[in-house]
Automatic annotation (TrEMBL):
Subunit structure: The Tol-Pal system is composed of five core proteins: the inner membrane proteins TolA, TolQ and TolR, the periplasmic protein TolB and the outer membrane protein Pal. They form a network linking the inner and outer membranes and the peptidoglycan layer.
Name of the protein in question: Tol-Pal system protein TolQ
Biological classification of the source: Bacteria, Pseudomonadati, Pseudomonadota, Gammaproteobacteria, Alteromonadales
Listed NCBIfam families: tolQ
Topological category with respect to the lipid bilayer: Multi-pass membrane protein
Source species of the chain: Pseudidiomarina piscicola
GO BP of this protein: bacteriocin transport; cell division; protein import
TM segment ranges: 16-37, 128-151, 171-193
Gene name of the encoded protein: exbB_1
Length: 233
């Protein structure tokens, strides 16, 4: 009998509890890989859009014009575009208020960007905690299946007069399959979580640096075209 057929037979002939553990680990693995592909696409897209927008921002484009372009498609704006739009909008809206000095206007603009920043980072980190949970608990779930399978194998030995390796081997083998499945679910989840957490941190730093740079530009220039201010209102 081929190895694949032997493993398949062990899975189907395993005890109910061990089969339940294997099914749970299979669900963990499928869910983990789905989240890996989903998070990879979202985080990679956010990083690429942030780099592209920074290139456009530092190309010398007029800020009022850039603000109007983003406002025309605000629903489809990406993370860094949303930061710029929120900050510039608040700056343009409050700049003409005689009751506020420049520092207060800049602080209000920064607060508006911080709100958007928090939402964008939360969006990038969504489901990462679940990925970490899969990576941390899957080995223990697999270990439970292993302990249960080995326990049943030794209980079965107590009912016979003479124990042989052939009698105990299937029970131990099915138990070890549970451990292997636990590791199969956990290892990709842990690797992906660590990688995604690092990439989210890099994008987060891009956002924070951009916010500081935009605030410095607004502070130095201290001017917004009237039509931009009107649109912001």
């Amino acid at each position: 009998m081929q190895a694949e057929m032997s493993i398949t037979a062990l899975i189907f002939e395993a005890s109910f509890v061990v089969q339940l553990v294997m099914l749970l680990l299979l669900a963990f693995s499928v869910a983990g890989w789905m989240m890996i592909f989903q998070r990879r696409k979202i985080i990679q897209s956010a990083s690429q859009h942030a780099t592209a927008f920074e290139d456009r921002f530092w190309s010398g484009v007029d800020l009022a014009r850039l603000y109007q372009e983003i406002g025309a498609r605000a629903q489809n704006a990406n993370g860094m575009e949303k930061l710029f739009y929120a900050g510039f909008k608040e700056f343009a809206r409050l700049r003409g208020n005689p009751a506020l000095d420049q520092q207060q206007v800049l602080e209000a603009s920064y607060r508006a960007m911080r709100v958007v920043h928090s939402r964008e980072v939360d969006r990038l980190e969504n489901n990462l905690s679940l990925l970490a949970t899969i990576g941390s608990i899957s080995p223990y779930v697999g270990l439970f299946g292993t302990v249960w399978g080995i326990m049943n194998a030794f209980i079965g030995l107590g009912a016979v007069q003479q124990a042989t390796l052939a009698m105990v081997a299937p029970g131990i083998a099915e138990a070890l399959i549970a451990t292997a499945m636990g590791l199969f679910a956990a290892i990709p989840a842990v690797i992906a979580y660590n990688r995604f957490a690092h990439r989210v941190e890099k994008v987060d730093n891009q956002y924070l640096n951009f916010m500081d740079e935009l605030l410095a530009i607004l502070q130095r220039q201290g001017s917004t075209p009237p039509k931009a201010a009107g649109n912001a209102a």
